[in-house]
Amino acid sequence: MNPTQLQSVLAAVLREQEQRFVQLLNTLRVGQSTSAAIVPPTQGNSPLPQLLDIESFVVDVENPTHFDDWLRHFEISLLCAAPKISDKEKTMVLATKLSTDAFAEFRKCCLPKDVTDYGYDEAVARLHLLFSKQRSVFAGRYDCMRLTRDEGEEFMHL
């Protein structure tokens, strides 16, 4: 295939894609003008930020600081994506970023109210109670000592 043939084939493909794009835009315009339920986003009814860079929080029982680390990352990302978001919207975004199991535990913790009935700070406090398991320094050192000792060795001789 010589360069002029290649150029004409590419031009034809480009025209075809452009026509499809124009048709798609026209159908979207028609759909918006006939539907009264579609409201263009404004400051009062803007959609919640998606935070695609934040993965869903999954409970990790082996890592007690996992929730705290995830929450710090979530808050920084939320601050960058939507610095003027309301307290209720923050709670809703936080709830959408929980895994199914974590959300089920959170919802049970909030009963008889709904998850969105709480402010952001109170929701975070409840999540801390659920997922941030505090361990004493002694417990951590004991686990370390238990892992590093030999099979027959007793703790009294260390």
Report what the structure shows.
By secondary structure, this protein is mostly helical. It is built from 6 helices and no strands. The protein has helices spanning 3-34, 66-81, 87-96, 100-110, 120-131, 137-148. Mean pLDDT is 77; it is low at 33-44.
The helix count comes to 6
Instruction: Provide the low-confidence segments as ranges.
Output: 33-44
* Main beta-sheet strand count, sense and barrel state: none
Order of helices and strands: HHHHHH
Question: Can you give the mean pLDDT?
Answer: 77
Helix content: 55-70%
Bin the strand percentage: under 5%
Looking at the structure, what is the overall shape? elongated
Distance between the termini: 80 Å
Question: How would you classify the helix and strand content by structural class?
Answer: mainly alpha
Short note summarizing the structure:
Helices cover 59% and strands 0% of the residues. By secondary structure, it is mainly alpha-helical.
